[in-house]
Amino acid sequence: MKLAVVILAAGRGERMNSALPKVLHKISGKAMLQHVIDSASKLKPSRTIVVAGRQYKEIKDTLKGSNILFAIQKEPKGTGDAVLKARTFLEGFKGTVLILNGDAPLVTAEALLKFLGLHGKSNNDISLISFVAARPAAYGRIVRDESDNILSIAEERDATDVQKKITEVNSGIYAVKSGLLGLLKEIRLNTLKNEYYLTDIIGIAKSKACKVEAYCIGFEDEMMGINTMPELLKAQQAYRKRLINNWMGKGITFFDSDSVFIYPEVMIGKGTTIYPDVFLEGKTKIGRGCTIYPNVRIIDSVVKDGAVIKDSTVIEGSVVMAGAVVGPFAHIRPGSEIGAGAKIGNFVEVKKSIIGKRTKASHLSYLGDASIGNDVNIGAGTITCNYDGKEKRRTTIEDRVFVGSDTQFIAPVRVGRDAYIGAGSTITKSVPPKALALSRAEQRNIKDWAKKRKGKASRGQAKKTV
Fold this sequence. Notes:
Blueprint: E1 3-9, E2 26-27, E3 30-31, H1 32-41, E4 47-52, H2 56-62, E5 69-72, H3 79-86, E6 96-101, H4 109-122, E7 126-132, E8 141-144, E9 150-154, E10 168-177, H5 200-207, E11 212-216, H6 220-223, H7 229-248, E12 253-254, E13 261-262, E14 267-268, E15 273-274, E16 279-281, E17 285-286, E18 291-292, E19 297-299, E20 302-303, E21 308-309, E22 314-316, E23 319-320, E24 325-326, E25 331-332, E26 337-338, E27 343-351, E28 354-355, E29 360-368, E30 370-372, E31 377-378, E32 383-385, E33 395-397, E34 402-403, E35 408-410, E36 413-415, E37 420-421, E38 426-427, E39 436-437, H8 449-465
């Protein structure tokens, strides 16, 4: 079946009460419209046309890089007029035109494939997906005859009292033979809303003895359109539940699925355990047998097999190798790599640095623009001073170095293998392998200093009393 896709995205979304175009509001980190495009792309259409309105530029910029054609509906004259605007891009196309809505982001490629299969098998001129709605007032009703054949679609404001009792409703998803798109010109203006309703094409087609069918195969959670912020929240919750259920089916353990947020492009290995209040965002990849503790946020990062990410840790654009332990309260900033079996502990920040295998920085340190070798011990309070006011400079610490607590490395500086850095040192020059580096002032003990100080304080107090 040759297929073209038209996605309607010109609605102003006034009920969202937001400056952002309605279709660009996000579900799990991805614009609603992008969700629809992604589902449609799995059908391998020969062309995809997005019908946008006055906010066309913002929508196009968001979808930059996508192989999408854009039709413009300058004035909001309804869905019938919107599809008519897409006809220019369908010249010469012969096949099925699938019409979708940019504000219905939960529809799956699987549902669309099933629908197109029914449409093609029955050789219908026009088909649509319907579903039974708990609250049908928001949708057009499917009006059928005594033989259960579809007659028309009645919009809420135009429906009779009898029609308003119908619970089977229109999803807004249509499959139309390309040769029948000329019927769009016969849709009459609805004077109540000053719009051309695409739904009217059903009645027009029936009047011309076209073969039309509505397949009640949809589910409300999947087909729902979003027009308000509460509906957006409901869609987010439904989508999150779908993803979580999918991962549980693949052997992932969740302690509280209602408080975990996973983006659609995230990958998780079998046997991983995820605690509450975890955010896995972007294209993050979690390996097998990992443990992600509460209040963790991981963005566009790779966490390899058996790694443990402890409480209240943030990891951005970085790699955590197998068996490493990060956190609690750690911040791994973009461009970092934490080596296999390494430990990054309490209140440690790592930025654009390579941390070697089995290296430990257990607490209260900043490691920025650094290359740190294997089996290094980083004492508490260590700082790589990487910025000189103009440029970022690197610190290199080779294998098996012991760094004492409260050490500052003034980059650029290199510390050779097996060297020792005494606690409280400020290192401004490179340290040879196996050397001990110290930069502390000699300790002085002033005898009876506290006693003399106390005596001075007592005399001062006596003068004030006089």
